[in-house]
């Protein structure tokens, strides 16, 4: 079921809210059971065949966590290794078996049909969530052990299929909190407003940008400089508003039940370095990779060289987590490389006493970071490596600069100047070109200049670990004028739901 | 605090309700799709925006409302080529159900749907496109044709009344009333391609012809090694004629082969498709003959405009020239002026020059047209 569908908004959600708070009158256990059942129904709506897989994964992991908890020393480590290995094997089979088989057959030159394995939606998220739980069980950090709360922690429908990646420490106490058993108007007002902002990001921005990104990536051909940049920027902002919108919706929905989810985005495209970008983009995944991969690999504890190796390994594996393919691997490797360069640059600046270069330095840092992120997104989105390389070639101006002829005919005296600078003209595609750049401009203003959701909701604890910052404009209050604005935005988004589209992160 | 929050929620809900009702009322009054007819005021909503969604459903709903006596079906060539309010059809209560990008199955669905709702036109004019019948792969001989005919549901009406797209189209409709160059369509379904007119003034007709030829070349080149879907052609034409004539025995049915401009015909030749074009025409003739036997009361005719005649060989203005054309927007789409000529010829077929003579005359007149077509197709094949 999609958050951005009439069935969810006007069917599933109201029914679940009513059932949850009705059950809560009989106690927390009933409320949790209703919510867990609803979450399983939510998941089963996608494809009921994968419901047993999810339940089996939860059952086995919970049993393993009890074994880990009850064991000590090497036995505990052995149980942990077995359980984590089983999770990785499950993920590996569903996510990487096809890729592995394809690669082997290509290298060996064997004719082979692809394996018929469909990726269960959300498997990456619920597997990572449970691995973190197992590791923390082995570290002795897990206190709450009620199965119903564990089931709810894993399946909780706002986050189940695309995150944020949750941590049991943050969630299980909230499920046990009696304060969340009664409906509260303030939670509904805050939750609804956050949800509406997320829905608008997805429906009004991401879905409007999608066709312009698809036009480039579905038929890369020989795109000229501005066409390539238009398509890449459209995807850059589409992905952000799609995923950030989903995360906001998840945070808003959870808040209706009184639960606060962790923040997942903090205006990442405003980052002035790649390290800062990763502190602001998909924050819960970054946290997971840091705590359960980078740090166990040794982090920065064994010198600069080892740190760089660990960084690269973490990012490459992070790339592969997003999808089984060479393009994702390259995307991860690019970001690993960016981070290594970033660390080296910072070290050099520190040694030379350069500081951050002031305003000009930050501007240059932003431009370089944003450009590098855009280039990396080409590999993330392209259907295969040759297509990605073709687009990068165009981004660098390798295929020249061309504009629609109809646009050229309207440029008057500017036209010969452009021609003398090497600009050529192509027939057709004027509407696409203009619309792409208009949408990119709108998206850029929203992403770069407007306050983000947590700033807008800063006074109302919008999410766990929210970075509240200083007061700014557009700050939300439960006032009629804000209700009217939110209501108009909600109506516009709801009226745009006639063709609900999947979230990009569902495929990861 | 809960008191403020409760008040906020009430305001939010009331805003959504009130704004939603306002949107629905606005769409009802402006009527961008011509579905309601409550208000029809020149300068406010008389000119309609071209349909970008629910074309099939909206055109049928309008037709049900208008109860037409003449129905035109086909793709964009019909939609842009025949004006039901033009001299030949004015007063005949004609509607143009042509929809861009659709094939014969859509026309069959339209005729069946209207027949099921009691519409019995005295005349049906149907355009047929050879490109729909050409395949890029050889056709297996025993392939069974499957005609999936869409049928309008009901939910689209709600979406056409209350959605962001309807609101946008309503506002666009109002803005369009004072825009002489904006894309529009008439209530009876004719789309005069006004945007082509402004593009032609800006860029010249040569650019329009060139652009479309560049788009067509790879499509035709891709079909060079393919075949002709004989079973599908037969099934579709048969179903089309039956849908028009069933329970309407005295109907007049005019099937017409589109008048492709010579540039496109030359590209057919260059791509090695001419033989299949001729075979397709022969199939149509056979099916028309068979349909005459099945429906003896009906008057069924096939008009072949897919030839090199004087209109089809209209000269393409040179690059950079601001000369205009009379008959064609570009090689695939003819203007309503030619539509009028074609309608007259349907009524009075007369005798035309032979295709060979027409081709020779065209070649003598515009030798560059043939060499250009061959070059474009050859480049697309590489």
UniProtKB/TrEMBL annotation, chain A:
UniProt source species: [Empedobacter] haloabium
Entry-linked InterPro entries: Ac/AlaTfrase_AlgI/DltB, AlgI, MB_O-acyltransferase, MBOAT_fam
Signal sequence, renumbered to the chain: none
Protein keywords: Acyltransferase, Alginate biosynthesis, Cell membrane, Membrane, Transferase, Transmembrane, Transmembrane helix
Main localization category: membrane
Name of this protein: Probable alginate O-acetylase AlgI
Subcellular location: Cell membrane
Short name of any one Pfam family annotated for the protein: MBOAT
Family statement: Belongs to the membrane-bound acyltransferase family.
Topology term for the membrane: Multi-pass membrane protein
Lineage, uppermost ranks: Bacteria, Pseudomonadati, Pseudomonadota, Betaproteobacteria, Burkholderiales
Record bears the keyword Secreted: no
Residue spans crossing the bilayer: 46-66, 78-97, 117-135, 147-166, 181-200, 311-334, 364-380, 387-413, 433-450
UniProt pathway annotation: Glycan biosynthesis; alginate biosynthesis
UniProtKB/TrEMBL annotation, chain B:
Protein name stated in the entry: SGNH/GDSL hydrolase family protein
Highest rank taxon of the organism: Bacteria
Residues spanning the membrane: 7-30
Entry keywords, A to Z: Membrane, Transmembrane, Transmembrane helix
């Amino acid at each position: 079921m999609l958050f951005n569908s009439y069935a969810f908004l006007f069917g599933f959600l109201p029914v679940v809210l009513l059932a949850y708070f009705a059950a809560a009158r009989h106690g927390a256990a009933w409320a949790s059971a209703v919510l867990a059942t609803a979450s399983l129904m939510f998941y089963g709506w996608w494809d009921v065949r994968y419901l047993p897989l999810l339940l089996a994964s939860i059952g086995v992991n919970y049993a393993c966590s009890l074994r880990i908890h009850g064991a000590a020393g090497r036995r505990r480590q052995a149980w942990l290794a077995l359980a984590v290995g089983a999770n990785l094997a499950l993920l590996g089979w569903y996510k990487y078996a096809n890729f592995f088989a394809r690669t082997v057959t290509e290298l060996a030159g064997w004719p082979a049909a692809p394996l018929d394995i469909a990726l269960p939606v959300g498997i990456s998220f619920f597997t990572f969530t449970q691995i973190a739980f197992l590791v923390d069980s082995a570290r002795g950090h897990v206190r709450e052990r009620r199965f119903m709360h564990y089931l709810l922690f894993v399946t909780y429908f706002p986050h189940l299929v695309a995150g944020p990646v949750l941590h049991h420490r943050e969630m299980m106490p909230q499920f046990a909190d009696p304060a969340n058993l009664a409906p509260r108007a303030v939670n509904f007002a805050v939750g609804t407003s956050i949800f509406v902002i997320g829905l608008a990001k997805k429906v009004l921005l991401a879905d409007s940008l999608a066709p312009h990104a698809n036009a480039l990536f579905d038929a890369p051909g020989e795109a000229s400089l501005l066409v390539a940049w238009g398509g890449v920027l459209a995807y850059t902002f589409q992905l952000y508003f799609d995923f950030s919108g989903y995360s906001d919706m998840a945070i808003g929905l959870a808040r209706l039940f009184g639960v606060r989810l962790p923040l997942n985005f903090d205006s990442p495209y405003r980052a002035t370095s790649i390290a800062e970008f990763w502190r602001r983009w998909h924050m819960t995944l970054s946290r997971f990779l840091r705590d359960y991969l980078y740090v166990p690999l040794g982090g920065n504890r064994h010198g600069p060289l080892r740190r760089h190796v660990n960084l690269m390994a973490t990012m490459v594996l992070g790339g592969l987590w997003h999808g089984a393919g060479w393009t994702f691997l390259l995307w991860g490797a690019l970001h690993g490389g960016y981070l290594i360069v970033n660390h080296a640059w910072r070290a050099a600046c520190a040694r030379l006493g350069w500081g951050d270069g002031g305003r000009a330095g930050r501007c240059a840092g932003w431009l370089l970071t944003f450009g590098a992120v855009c280039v990396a997104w080409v590999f993330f989105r392209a259907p295969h490596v040759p297509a990605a390389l073709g687009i990068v070639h165009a981004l660098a101006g390798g295929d020249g600069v061309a504009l629609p002829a109809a646009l050229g005919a309207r440029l008057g005296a500017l036209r010969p100047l452009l021609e003398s600078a090497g600009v050529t003209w192509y027939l057709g595609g004027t509407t696409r070109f203009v619309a792409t750049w208009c949408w990119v401009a709108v998206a850029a203003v929203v992403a770069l200049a407007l306050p983000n959701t947590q700033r807008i909701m800063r006074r109302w604890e919008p999410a766990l670990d929210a970075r509240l910052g200083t007061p700014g404009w557009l700050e939300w209050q439960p006032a009629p004028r804000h209700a009217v604005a939110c209501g108009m935005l909600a109506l516009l988004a709801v009226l745009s739901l006639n063709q609900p589209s999947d979230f990009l992160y569902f495929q990861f | 605090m809960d008191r403020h929050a409760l008040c906020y929620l009430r305001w939010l809900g009331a805003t959504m309700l009130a704004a939603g009702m306002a949107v629905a009322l606005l769409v009802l009054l402006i009527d961008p799709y011509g579905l309601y007819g409550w208000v029809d005021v020149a300068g406010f909503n008389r000119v309609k925006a071209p349909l970008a969604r629910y074309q099939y459903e909206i055109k049928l709903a309008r037709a049900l409302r208008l109860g037409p006596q003449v129905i035109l079906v086909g793709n964009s060539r019909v939609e842009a080529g025949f004006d039901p309010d033009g001299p030949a059809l004015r007063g005949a209560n004609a509607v143009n159900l042509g929809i861009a990008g659709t094939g014969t199955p859509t026309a069959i669905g339209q005729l069946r749907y209207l027949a099921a709702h009691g519409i019995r036109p005295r005349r049906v004019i149907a355009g047929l496109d050879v490109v729909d019948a050409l395949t890029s792969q050889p056709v297996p001989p025993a392939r069974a044709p499957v005609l999936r005919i869409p049928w309008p549901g009901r939910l689209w009406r709600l979406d056409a009344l209350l959605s962001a797209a309807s609101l946008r189209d309503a506002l666009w409709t109002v803005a369009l009333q004072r825009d002489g160059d904006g894309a529009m369509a008439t209530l009876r379904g004719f789309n005069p391609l006004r945007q082509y007119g402004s593009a032609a003034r800006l860029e010249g007709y040569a650019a329009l012809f060139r652009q479309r030829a560049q788009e067509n070349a790879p499509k035709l080149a891709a079909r060079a090694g393919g075949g002709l879907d004989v079973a599908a052609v037969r099934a579709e034409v048969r179903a089309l004629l039956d849908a028009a004539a069933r329970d309407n025995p005295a109907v007049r049915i005019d099937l017409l082969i589109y008048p492709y401009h010579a540039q496109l015909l030359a590209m057919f030749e260059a791509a090695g498709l001419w033989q299949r074009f001729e075979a397709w025409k022969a199939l149509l003739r056979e099916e028309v003959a068979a349909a005459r036997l099945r429906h003896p009361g009906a008057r069924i005719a096939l008009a072949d405009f897919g030839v090199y005649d004087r209109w089809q060989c209209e000269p393409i203005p040179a690059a950079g020239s601001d000369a205009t054309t009379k008959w064609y927007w570009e090689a695939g789409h003819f203007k309503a002026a030619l539509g009028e000529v074609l309608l007259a010829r349907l009524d009075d077929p007369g005798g035309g020059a032979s295709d060979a003579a027409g081709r020779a005359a065209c070649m003598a007149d515009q030798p560059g047209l043939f060499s250009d077509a061959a070059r474009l197709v050859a480049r697309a094949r590489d």
